[in-house]
Amino acid sequence: MNDLHGILFAYHSDANLGELTRPRNTCSLAFGGRYRLIDFMLSSYVNAGITDVGIIVHEGYQSLLDHLGSGKDWDLSRKHGGLRILPPFGYAEQGHGTYRGNMEALAGVSGYLNNIRQDYVIMGWGDIALNLPVAKVLEEHLASKADITVVCSPALKGAPRFSEYVEVSGEGRITDLSIHPSAADKALESLEVYILSKQLLLDMVEYCAAHDVHSFSRGVLQPRLKSLKLVPYIHQGYVGRFQSVGDYFQRSMDLLDPAVRDDLFSPVRPIRTKDQSNPSTYYGPDAVSSRSLVADGCFIEGQVENSILSRGVIIEQGAKVSNSVLMQGTVVKAGASLSYVIADKNVKVNEGRTLMGHSTYPLAIAKNSIV
Question: Which one of 219, 284, 314, 319 has the fewest CB atoms closer than 10 angstroms to its CB?
């Protein structure tokens, strides 16, 4: 896989995620207890043998930098190539604020793109949870002689108005691309992950920059459905999209299903994350934990059911937590009760408090809050 270069878009903070993305980039959002969303696509790249990865950022990426560090936990700390964080130094001089789309983001790092050593590039977003066999995607891309391969999913998750869909002919060629349609019952959902040649990418970046086109889908794919050979790669595994607080809660609860965990955390393609070397979780003599994912370093003396706990969570004696997602450092004091709650990092719930949301409308508590 030395002929494939990885690009990850990590410049977006989705306002639809409310309190969860105000202090951070969407890609650095905690997921599954000990992971961040960016771990999944980044690990997919690394598992395929990709050694050079560029991550395009813009605003609110301090948390992402803290998590990724030098890239050593993904074997990307190298003298030549490896992990490169690409802030908008050249783009900031233009004074337009944040990127309007991924083509504008690529134009902002055009100097980096010109120095890519590989002949092919895979581009994707860092805020999607899946375990993608990237080596197989490249193999099919080369075998089909496609100009662009689009990774798709047959399982329609999330609202069509926030997604892109493709229609495929009997010959296996993409014939139509719908962007945020009102309905897409028969189409494949595009995961907005693409493989194409470096030269084609450079040509498209130059064209879009010259014509003030900022969207890859609208500016590159839609106008060239006939002139370029676009081929889908259909990923049959689990895909988690995060387009609202409700989505985040439901995708988190998906992880309590062993079949989902087996697909997402395949030992053949492991998901890597930052090593924090936490001690084992402590369970008190009266602690109860059932059908839950509990990370290292927690201290549990109360009851936990159908929940996901990140590192360093404290559940005091007499406290009850059910159907909830608690991020790192959350403290639930004695006698408190939480149900259908998403608690961000370092939240403190005081004694005797009762917090209750609903499966369709979970209660999200902002980072560092005291309730």
Answer: 284
Residues 306, 319: Cα–Cα separation, whole Å: 15
CA distances from 272 to 44, 68, 276, 370 (A): 9, 11, 12, 32
DSSP string of 126-145?
SS-B----HHHHHHHHHHHT
CB 348, CB 371: distance < 8 Å: yes
Q: What is the 3-state secondary structure (H, E, C) of 54-122?
A: EEECCCCCHHHHHHHCCCHHHCCCCCCCEEEEECCHHHHCCCCCCCCCHHHHHHHCHHHHHCCCCCEEE
Tens-digit pLDDT profile for residues 11-48: 877 778 888 888 788 899 999 989 999 999 999 999 99
Residues 265-311 pLDDT 10s: 999 999 999 988 889 999 999 999 999 999 999 999 999 999 999 99
The CA distances from residue 161 to 29, 246, 252, in Å, are: 23, 15, 22
Rounded to an integer, what distance in angstroms lies between the CA atom of residue 78 and that of residue 246?
39
CATH H-level superfamily of 282-365: Hexapeptide repeat proteins (2.160.10.10)
C-alpha to C-alpha distance for 2 and 78, rounded to whole angstroms: 14
Query: Tokens standing for 222?
Result: 């839609």
CATH superfamily placement of domain 4-264: Spore Coat Polysaccharide Biosynthesis Protein SpsA; Chain A (3.90.550.10)
Alpha-carbon span 362 to 245, nearest angstrom: 7
Are domains 4-264 and 282-365 of this chain identical in fold? no
- Structural domain spans, the chain: 4-264, 282-365
* Vertex 265 angle, CA 264 and 270, to 5°: 125
CB 321 within 8 A of CB 340: no
Distance CA(259)–CA(325), nearest Å, equals 20
